[in-house]
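=== RUN LOG ===
request id: a7f3
mode: sequence -> structure
chains: 1
length: 141
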Amino acid sequence: NTNDQGVNTNNQGINTNNQGLNTNNQGLYPSNNICVHTNNQGVNTNNKGINTNNQGVNTNNQGVNTNDQGVNTNNQGINTNNQGLNTNNQGLYPSNNICVHTNNQGVNTNNKGINTNNQGVNTSDNICVNTNNQGVNANNQ
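=== RESULT ===
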């Protein structure tokens, strides 16, 4: 009983600002598979990603074995601002696997990533972050 949520976002253009907030709050023994694939290509691109994982004991906001839909967004143009908020709150007995694949290509690219992991009692958390930044004058913090 695995819940897979896939968000595939492709943003192409000049002066593109993509801000993604992915918050995962889990209870006791949760099972959640989230895969976010982001491809940003262009000039003067600012990508900020905050991945916060808070795990506690007996935090029940949703039920067990929840199946949510996937979102496929394709944005092309100049001066595009995309903001996505993905919040997943789960109940009892889920297991958390988060995989973030980010590919940023361009000139004058600023990528800031904050990954915070707070774990409570009896939690299982596997986080895999694969970041590929290619370009000229890139500032990665």
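=== NOTES ===
The longest strand covers residues 4-26.
Residues 57-75 have pLDDT under 50 and may be disordered.
=== END ===
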